[in-house]
Amino acid sequence: MILETAAANLLSAPVLAFVLGLVAVAVRSDLRLPEALTTSISIYLLLAIGVKGGVALRSATLAEVAGPVALALVLGVIVPLVAYGALRVMTRLGPLDRGSVAAHYGSTSLVTFTAALVFLDSSGIDYPGYAPTLLTVLEIPGIVVGILLASRGAEGRVSWGGTVHEVLAGKSIVLLAGGLLLGYAIGDGGYAGVQGFFDEPFRGVLALFLLGLGIEAGLRLRSLREAGPGLLVFAALFPFVIGSAVVGVAVLAGLGQGGAVVLAILCASASYIAAPAAVRFALPEANLAMPLAASIGVTFPVNLVLGIPYLTWLAGVLVG
């Protein structure tokens, strides 16, 4: 079952676009996406997810949302602590770089989350409308905890005021939170007027963004050699270990198959938008090449091809 769903996911347009990006780097093509284009695409994806989530959020009660949000906050603290401990055992990284990697893995990946929603839609599996709220909530604690752990190995003191502002005022939080409020305010009636813009082009835009990520992943893989094989193994196993544990907890909490998959893939992914900006500000001496190479070059494609189908299957088994 896992192999069948993984094969179907592998043949989807977004995944194949990612593979094309890897191939382009392998054959030393000059194919690159302009930075302005990738920035525009990420803004579109963030706002589209936020607005659609805000519209769906209107039909949810506070009682339905409060429990999953509280669970997400707790996991947002636990996951970077687990990542930091695993990196201490599996790699030769010092406290500074361990904390930097933990911050990236404690935060979330917008594109992995988006790919999971597309996979659930294609599989006919319902997921809660508050899913983007969980994405917004989980962006913050993992970064803060990771930086706190890394600060013990930093040369200077961390400017926490500036760091918190960098996290909260970053485009990820502003667009997701702003989109949620916008969608909640306009409701179904208002959304009908912009649905053609946010719905129809969504998968095509996602495929284009994944093409750029494939190129980025191909270029970043070389940086993994500096950290040794331990980081590579960590990045490959992280989605399955953390994802499986979170699926079990989410099913016990009553989130259902779709809700369990959403929360698990958020915890099993790694940030490469919000976390790098915050870590660069708080810990300028940290080597960002290693967490970015691990998250984009290993964890992201593992989740894209195997992690999402596996977690969907596992959640179905536990719920069923």
What does this structure look like?
This protein has 320 residues and is mainly alpha-helical. It has one domain (34-319): Na+/H+ antiporter like fold. The protein is globular. Helix 7 runs antiparallel to helix 8. The model has no long low-confidence stretch (mean pLDDT 87). Helix content is 80%, strand content 0%.
Brief descriptors of the model:
80% helix, 16 helices, globular, 0% strand, mainly alpha
Q: Quick summary of this structure?
A:
This protein has 320 residues and is mainly α. Helix content is 80%, strand content 0%.
DSSP E strands, number: 0
Instruction: Write the element-wise H/E pattern from the N-terminal end onward.
Output: HHHHHHHHHHHHHHHH
Our Rg estimate from Cα atoms comes to 18 Å
Q: Structural class of the helices, strands and pairings? A: mainly alpha
Mean pLDDT: 87
Please report the number of helical segments: 16
List the helices and strands and how they pair.
Layout lengths: L1 H9 L2 H14 L8 H23 L4 H29 L4 H12 L3 H14 L7 H20 L9 H9 L2 H22 L2 H4 L3 H19 L3 H4 L1 H24 L3 H13 L5 H9 L6 H31 L1
